[in-house]
Design a protein that fits this description.
This protein is an alpha/beta fold. It has one domain: Rossmann fold (3-Layer(aba) Sandwich), CATH 3.40.50.10580. Helices cover about 45% and strands about 20% of the residues. Strands 2-1-3-4 form a four-stranded parallel beta sheet, with helices on both faces. GO terms for molecular function: hydrolase activity; proton-transporting ATPase activity, rotational mechanism. This is V-type sodium ATP synthase subunit F.
């Protein structure tokens, strides 16, 4: 299984490539969504890395991909200052699983 990062953030891709990940730079949201759909079709991809900004642009597509029984693990990476949204993880679990977690 391979891991791949897709992003509109060039600096993030450079850092991930230096760490050994493959990466695809997308210049706009449309190309980001197209690359995401193409990667989902590839059986050898095990992990897809997305920045938080890119995840926010493709929230519906990501959740649709996660609803499928089999598919790659989709990981959201925070920016330099951490996650922009407070309680990002709690919201993510609530949307993905349907459970409300108390702090």
């Amino acid at each position: 299984m391979k891991s791949i990062a897709i992003s509109r953030n060039y600096e993030l891709l450079v850092a991930l490539r230096m760490s050994g990940f493959e990466g695809i730079f997308c210049k706009d949201v449309h190309s980001l969504k197209m690359e995401f759909k193409d990667i989902l079709k590839q059986n050898q991809i095990g992990i897809i890395l997305l920045s938080e900004d890119d995840f926010q642009e493709m929230r519906e597509e990501v959740f649709e991909a996660k609803k499928k029984k089999r598919g790659p693990l989709i990981v959201t990476l925070p920016g330099r200052g951490g996650f922009k949204e407070q309680d990002f993880i709690l919201k993510y679990v609530k949307e993905a699983v349907g459970l409300k977690l108390d702090r």
